Predict the structure.
Amino acid sequence: MSELSVDHLLGIKYLNPQDIQLIFETADHFKEVINRPIKKVPSLRDITIANLFFENSTRTKLSFELAEKRLSADVINFSSAQSSVKKGETLIDTVNNILSMKVDMVVMRHPNPGAGIFLSKHVKASIVNAGDGAHEHPTQALLDSYSIRERLGDVHGKKVVIVGDILHSRVALSNIFALKLQGAEVMVCGPKTLIPKYIGELGVKVETNLRAALNWCDVANMLRVQNERMDINYFPSTREYTQQFGVDKALLDSLNKEIVIMHPGPINRGVEITSDVADSKQAIILDQVQNGVAIRMAVIYLLASKIKQ
Amino acid sequence: MNILIKSATIIDPSSEFHNKTQDLLIEDGVISKIANSIENTKDYQEIQLDNLHISQGWFDSSVCFGEPGFEERETIENGLNTAAASGFTAVGMNANSYPVIDSNSNITFVNSKANGHAVKLLPIGALTYASKGEDLAELYDMNTAGAVAFYDYKKPITNPNLLKIALQYASNFDGLVCSFPQENKIVGHGVMNENVTSTTLGLKGIPALAESMQVARDLFLLEYTGGKLHIPTISTVESVALIKEAKSKGLDVSCSVAIHNLYFTDDVLNGFNTHYKVLPPLRTQKDIEALIEGLKDGTIDMVTSDHNPIDIEHKKIEFDHAAYGTIGLESAFGALQTKFDLDKTIELLTLGKARFGVKSSPIKIGNPLNIALFNPVGAYTFSKKHINSKSHNAIFENETLKGKVYGIIANGKISLN
């Protein structure tokens, strides 16, 4: 069996198309496993994984933990909304303390961009980035592409628009890298204040008119506005944001084709999408959640098989 | 000090011996003879070094030496030794200390620490008390103690009226006011240049706009007040253009550029290496080209290493949290030589002295000896073993630099590596 080109999953930009293909094929297998009556395989009985979450998370943490347990890995969890710096201990020391208890792999979410890359250079463990500031969230992008592949057959040649707060979004950035790597066309759409000035240089289209964007695309990935990352109000009110960038059923039905609606969660119902859109057959939001477990199983399994060597 | 320097190639356009290889006889610290060959009849100390070149001693307008308060980063003594080992005979030391150097007694303390060293330390006092940006410090009193300029190190003057008053007040005694070119509100939480690289890394960007807005504001103020303004470490195309225009109007403005801003573009940040975290941030190739052009046409008055030792605890951490700054004295000559020919490199290393009150000392008979000694030939990889500073945060680590510095002879003292 082939293997990943990397020893850590730090970001999509460090992967190649073969890596993504391998992760998807491995996830296909695990998706079948988690739909069996006995949802567990003994693959990683000798592996210990630490989930280190230095930033709040519910679904990503649960998804990783479930993926690890389905693979029979031993799991320890550490959550702290405070960064280690504030406590006076460095990130390297925090992680080395945990690794000295014989941990093989670290899944880390951290508020600072590049934290996983920094860690990978200074500690001896395989690192999975579960989101680092506004940098990358690679497993989210992988599960998003995997879900598009599942619904539309292929990612190559598809038109995907990412709508919302692009400026503060690691999901947007990882999705852009993943989709481009697989040959999809990518557009970002949102208020100009929430679109990085130089994003066009990544080879994506920029659109500020939501209807035009939706008429262009096959898939719309609706992002949440990340109020917690904002140092100033980037738009006057939620109401006004929704008027321009919210998708409701009437808008969806008025398009010239049936597009797929995605959302990485958590949804602010009535803001970026209305309830009837979230619950419509065009939305694959819950498929994304289920695929998240399979994708994370695949990533952990593939990285662990490199540790075992 | 009596010495005989053998076979030194003199690089000094102001000397009749420019580009000539000569022997120099120094008696009581003064150049008494320059000739093709001088006999050592009085048994003076002889200095003979491989491919020896000499020039007027080099000047750096912006260094930090830790003291008082940050001795874990650097001390004045070791900082001055580093400057000497790197060819510098005069350095402007910023008030980047704790407590901040904002009074006559602080300036006196710094001077006492540097007293008797081969390198002349030029203290730069804070512009405002504790560099808080609120009330002017006692500028005149610091000036009388030897402060050569006034600068809240790397802290922009956010209140334009404060800068207006500072320029007016300091003009009474011909004081030099420095204003860091950055508009903080535009910077926000930015930590690197705003560009496609910052987008790719998810790091908040500092737009070039943040610098040019502040430069434009400061030049408007200077035009109104008169006085002497120095803008340390500019980094953008727009700043060069604005200052060029101001100079053509006759405004008394000077500016500097950090050597690393002439060398690196922001794409080196791709690995999140905190050695590249500097302020102003590394910009783009277009900026580098404009800055080099600005040096050529005289818009930019001087280069600086912007030497700022930072201990490892403030660098070996997440990028967002890491301190800004790099050491640069040790790599200044070698880095400039990769970008400019020898004559231009030496010109750049001796520019700007007069602005900070340092007299020029051409290599001529009758002048006191104040020289840097070096061998301009030979490429090498800059590494930890080339670092003399207490802190090792070197942006040029692993870069291929050119030329070796032997040291200095200045202030009646020989300081050779």
Summary: The two ends of chain B are 18 Å apart (CA to CA). The interface with chain A takes residues 188-189, 194-196, 198-205, 207, 271-272, 313, 316-321 of chain B (CB under 8 Å). Residues 57-356 of chain B form a domain with the TIM Barrel fold (CATH 3.20.20.140).
